[in-house]
Amino acid sequence: MDAAIAQMVAFTDATPDRARQYLQVTDGDVEQAVSLFFESGGVDLGGPAPVVTESSTTAVGSGNARDPISIDDEEDVPVTRSTIPAAGMEDDEAMARRLQEEMYGGAGEEEVIRAPIARQAETLAGPGASDYYGGSSLDDAVQERLQAFSNRRGARRAPGIFNQQPTSRIWQEGAADRSALAESTGGASETNSRAQHLARLFAPNWGLMFNGSWDDARDEGKAEKKWLIVNIQNEKVFDCQVLNRDIWNNPSIVETVTENFLFLQYSKDDPRADQYCQYYFHNSEVEDEYPHVAIVDPRTGEQVKLWSRKIPNAGEFLMQLHEFLDRYSLDNTARNPVAKRKSEAKKEKPLDMLTEEEQMERALQASMAGQGSLKVPDEDPDELTRSVGDLKGKDVAMVETEQTQTNGSAAPSLWAQIPSDKPHEEPPANAAETTRIQIRHPEGRIVRRFALKDKVQRIFEYLKASPIEGREGIEFDVVAMGTNLMNVRDQTIEEAGLKNASVMVEFSES
Description:
The chain is α+β, with helices and mostly antiparallel strands.
């Protein structure tokens, strides 16, 4: 190490401490350290470097007490978060955040002024244009020009560790292949072992991602009865990269998403994201609105759930996904929650409805504060369905009233036929014959043990015999993964797939 420091000091005129920092980043490679020093302007890479004695020096990439990550440049070692010590993870995240800000700019940095658009000659098409285009139809020529314009407009930033681009090899082989990873990052992952490690750690989950357009996703979602879950990425926002590491590569989340959703992840500059941003994400240019994850109904195109600005940790996010699946269903006979209150977001009046004074005031605010700050923050549509008073209960009451008026008397509902004098008695604990079921309701949650051979109706009997406080005598449904358990009440808990399940109690009250 001392010899390498001496060589770098001779080449760059850097101080020995500064040279040590660059050599540690490049795993002792003098040539790479010198190149990195001149490219970065010789900036300080993180304060004084630790002193390394000869007795503690080991081979590059072998791992030691100061550098717990051991990665062999010649081997293709899959790296996951669970295989990295906590201290190493903190160091990696700090370095990743710094590198991301250097590559793409932080949230508070000024936009780099791009070079002027090069001059170009355009030809206006008119009568007789078919002859000008060599006999091809005018429509084909126009489509060709529009495609060229779209390609120029959709030109994205160069690939990198935090802006990995999809390639045919990645869709086929996955990010575990080292050469495919290098192609996706434009060679950035091959700089050194640490860069390769970070590239894998923050790589998108290509295997989970739907490879197609927005319209194709809607068509497949309707055919497969799967919701669309959309993630719009901004390479300048580090929390977007954290989603790839913590959320989209979490095994439990991957399993849930694969079974119930089609996952679409677009960069905000991707032309495929234009249609989505136009209809759902009007604030896509405002960095404070990221991260952005939403669930869309493929049948109607309605955005029914939104996570914006702050995404919960993996465990809470998974629980919210299951809660969503309990409350919503793509079954045409299911009753999905509807909005019970108006949006609290303050919407601006259209420009043509403003007075001259109001137009002047808005223009002044836009010039002083910046147009992005005037945009109304997006609001979670699912939150508008949560309030006192259930419209679904009102609809049920109206239907029952109409049946009574038509038939003269109303037939007892299925819920009314459930006995209310059979309190629950938990069976003895036996992993082979019993299971615990989590029962969630508006007031909280309950966990009870049932026998696998018990009928699903036992859940209804328990809730009716021991009603939730303040909900006595109110009709309810019990839903699991979008299925109303009243329809399978004669099946056993094991047959209905309720082993270790979580169910949701929905009250039908006016």
